């Protein structure tokens, strides 16, 4: 039997004020799998992720985390094993790389094991790192705490392909080795499908499809994007 989902959306409607940006979503994410949330600009991907993370309250429907209706705010969900990587990088520019890693819930040594590239940069103010290095820092800090669920928004935005590959590989390892569940918001279909097990497609605030990430997905999704 498949393991129980770690994250579920049931009839989830979410948005801003009383304006719904996404309507009636049903989604599940299981331990050990990477699920891509795809869709064009403005489809509602970020709104969905923020609501699943507890940063926005559902307008209707519910979010379940570990089988229970999740009403706790984001910071409390993080204490119960959820990692959240928002679109805007959450580093403190004036603090060093080491100090930024020290703010995480996991050991600095584990962050450096995952991304040894950060070792020579430890004393550097995080604000002086390249975009890719900053995103490695964010991801290393999050993964070092061994989250059981990771919600990740547009990890690859503006980064070089080789950096993106390293970041996605780290997520894949976390899913495969520690059984972490990952929900990944991505605009780039090919990139997302290179690492994901399954995908959901959002269009105009509603689910327009879902499937396993296989050789048929690209064609199916390409039709939807056009
Ligand atoms: P993108 O990839 O461009 O970020 P997205 O799929 O993540 O797009 P959302 O950012 O979730 O889409 O936006 C969905 C809709 O909600 C859009 O119409 C957007 O204008 C609206 N929206 C987003 N943030 C807010 C906000 N803070 N207040 C009001 N409306 C918002």
TrEMBL record:
Pfam families: ABC_tran (PF00005). PROSITE patterns: ABC_TRANSPORTER_1, ABC_TRANSPORTER_2. GO terms for molecular function: ATP binding. Keywords: Amino-acid transport, ATP-binding, Nucleotide-binding, Transport. InterPro entries: AAA+_ATPase, ABC_transporter-like_ATP-bd, ABC_transporter-like_CS, BCAA_Transport_ATP-bd_LivF, P-loop_NTPase. Residues 7-226 form the ABC transporter domain. Belongs to the ABC transporter superfamily. This is ABC transporter ATP-binding protein. It comes from Nocardioides endophyticus.
